[in-house]
Amino acid sequence: xxxxxTNTRDRDFLAMLKHRRRAHxxxxxxxxxxxxxxxxxxxTNASANGVPSYIDSGGVVxxxxxxxxxxxxxxxxxxxxxxxxxxxxxxxxxxxxxQAVWVKGASSALKNVTGPxxxxxxxxxxxxxxxxxAHSVSQGSLTITASATQPxxxxxxxxxxxxxxxxxxxxxDFVGVTVNLVAGTAVGFTGGAGxxxxxxxxxxxxxxxxxxxxGRINVASTTATAQLDMAAVAGTYSYQGDGVSxxxxxxxxxxxxxxxxxxxxxxxxxxxxxxxxxxSLPYPITPRSLTLYAKFFNLGTFQTGSTNGVVAIxxxxxQGLCIxxxxxxxxxxxxxASDVTSSAAYPNQFDVVEHRGLMNPDGxxxxxxxxxxxxxxxxxxxxxxxxxxxxxxxxxxxGDRNGVAGFAAFQSVxxxxxxxxxxxxxxx
Length: 428
Description:
Blueprint: H1 6-23, E1 26-31, E2 42-44, E3 53-55, E4 61-63, E5 70-75, E6 78-83, E7 87-89, E8 103-105, E9 107-113, E10 123-128, E11 132-133, E12 136-143, E13 150-159, E14 163-170, E15 173-180, E16 185-191, E17 195-203, E18 209-216, E19 223-231, E20 239-240, E21 246-253, E22 272-274, E23 278-282, E24 290-298, E25 311-314, E26 320-325, E27 329-335, E28 339-345, E29 352-359, E30 365-371, E31 377-378, E32 395-398, E33 408-417, H2 422-427
Antiparallel strand pairs: 1-33, 2-23, 3-4, 5-6, 6-33, 7-22, 8-12, 9-10, 10-21, 11-20, 12-19, 13-18, 13-21, 14-15, 14-19, 15-16, 17-18, 23-32, 24-29, 24-33, 25-26, 25-32, 26-27, 27-28, 29-30, 30-31
């Protein structure tokens, strides 16, 4: 019997292992909290210092300075990187209801309590008086676009009163939520021509809650009033006050025509704008068959069109590989001289989303989408499309690639060599 050449056998075995590793290699990985400087990344946000905000691991509102990545934003105990487009808060003196711009109805306000930001005297105590009346606080003359959906958000804490309603109103038309701070609920309601869109409540540290909602007041009004009415019991908004009970209030935020609320923007005597986030990392690896994977909380929507994108490899235009919002669907696009796409229905607000965009060796693409750890919805494989010899720009964009960010909180973004399963993407 001939002698086995063990050196040759070992070399062949090692070559096979190397090939398998290369075929399943993780080409790129970003996890929220990783240093972007170590990866050569770039983040910009031109907002003034102290404007962008996030919620930390302890449920406390925090603010950051210009060009600071908000990668310590927690949702349900999960660390994320918060990426948002530009918004402007029109509510003046957003945390100071002692100011004249806030009209107090059978109530008074003192700026004297620690807010959800854990800063002393950053929030207000709203106290009902001793009359039989509606005990409220409101701010009018908020500019809106006729027929557009309007968001509103505010932070509340019980201080003798645990029930209230918060709403946007013009005349007999209104939309808002009834709030129960014991049950931790915010339930939509309307009047007149009001149309409700959504409501959400988040429990934070030290008994604070953030309440948000959106809806359309009517089809004609171009101004609105934001109002809070306290209740002695649920549903009773005119009652005999006791002169001592009330609520703690912080961070009223009305973002014109925004459809959904975003992270709180504090204001003083003038409205304040938070600039759009722009986040990118170098991706110098030559185009090839690959799997592009992203996991994130969908906080609202992404700008439609392939020049934007949830995640994208390539230039600031739309050549390359991109996962984006087409308007009706979420899609993966491979664009060179021509386009090929694969899609699934666009996710809902607050969904935990996993996107898996596959580029096959022939340049065809396949899109997979998983919502809230459910079954993956997989689109049809596209036609073939020649893979570029080099990316137009060797850059990976997260949440934005054309100066118009979407609204999402990213847990991770990964790029794997070849066509990989969802399970492999999760494990990488």
